[in-house]
Amino acid sequence: MQTKKILVLDGHPAESSLSRTFAQTYGDAARDKGHDVRFVHLSDLDFDHDFGQGNYHDFKPLEPVLEQVLQDIEWSDHLVLTTPMWWGGLPAKLKGLIDRMFIPGRTFDTRKTTLAGLPAPMLTGRTARVILTSDTPGWFMRLVYRQALIRQMRGQILGFVGFKPTRFTYFSGASAPKPGRVDRWISQVSKIGAAAV
């Protein structure tokens, strides 16, 4: 078995959450199999969420905590992100983390383009897993919302900077799960973590 360098990012802004439980479960299972695992908890990070001017030339310098997370991403072979879906999107602090960190010259190169004419990704050679919780039933997510957040994460965020493939695990009914459901979810996450996928 080839060992991986895995960054597990708990993308829930609260100190205690189902996302944090899944992050720890995945990371512990992967570490038990010999993989090198680092953890980042969004709730521990203090930074300005606002990108500011909104262009590629005058963005704010990264705070030390953001620089460290970005270095951890650059170090990793595999990124694991656990997050809830709120109002059809990511929590504001997590979106702010992405807005601030995924900057030109570090995660994509505006001086080079792909065949599609997009900036060249700079984080290629890495894979990702997103563990997403929501109250939206899976069938509704697929048929009505057309998996909008999943498509955004796969193509417009992680895929844009080079993560391929990005796999998803979706758990619905997270606010008031039926008895035994969380234990089954934890077992499933543990198996995914042990396989490091």
Automatic annotation (TrEMBL):
Name of the protein described by the UniProt record: Flavodoxin-like fold domain-containing protein
Presence of the UniProt keyword Oxidoreductase in the record: yes
Sections of the chain in a coiled coil: none
Pfam family, one: Flavodoxin_2
GO molecular function: NAD(P)H dehydrogenase (quinone) activity
GO cellular component assignments: cytosol
Family: Belongs to the NAD(P)H dehydrogenase (quinone) family.
UniProtKB keywords: Oxidoreductase
Domain Flavodoxin-like fold per the UniProt entry, residue ranges: 4-178
